[in-house]
Amino acid sequence: MTTYSEETLKAYRSVTTASVADAVEQHGARGYLSGSIGQIAPGAGTLAGPAVTVRETPAAEAEPPVHALQAIDESPAGSVVCIDAGGADVAVWGGLMTAGAVARGMAGCVLDGGVRDVTEIRRDFPDFPVYARSSVPATTLGRYRTVSLNEPVVVGEVTVRPGDLIVADRDGVVRVPRELVDEVLRTALEIEEREKEQTRYILESGSLRAGLARHNRI
Q: What is the pTM for the complete model shown?
């Protein structure tokens, strides 16, 4: 399982997902997940951690989410559970799963599907971030089943592989390919510094257009 140093994770938490998304694109890939996957529970701040991937498909049988439970109980602390349920309008995550994830020291979850028990999660586990397509009370039992663990999945129209770095904040979720993590971080930090300089110049000059022209960046 891919792991990242606390220094790297801390640096990613210090920048916005907008800068990270731009940086990934500058390195020839798409990083940002669909905006339909948003922040349901904010947690303690910017989410950053390696992806653990689970896939779910429709099923008529009432089966427990075996691979998701395995992911929670067996993945390293700091992991981010990413569940591909094809945008299912059912809850692929809930309060008990959050309790298990917190007990294991997981960093958060990103769901291409729904989540339930949101009030409980926000009340009992305020530091745990949840990103999902929706909140919905419907269970997966008799509707969906898990079919894979730690294989590539599609979440928010982006392929996520085990060990890819997931970064998320109020703007949304970004996947950083694991082989580009160091390069993307350097680029994102440069973008943040240029934007700070650009903002200062706009305020000093009193002109948005002058600030955009000076740094050639919108």
A: 0.93
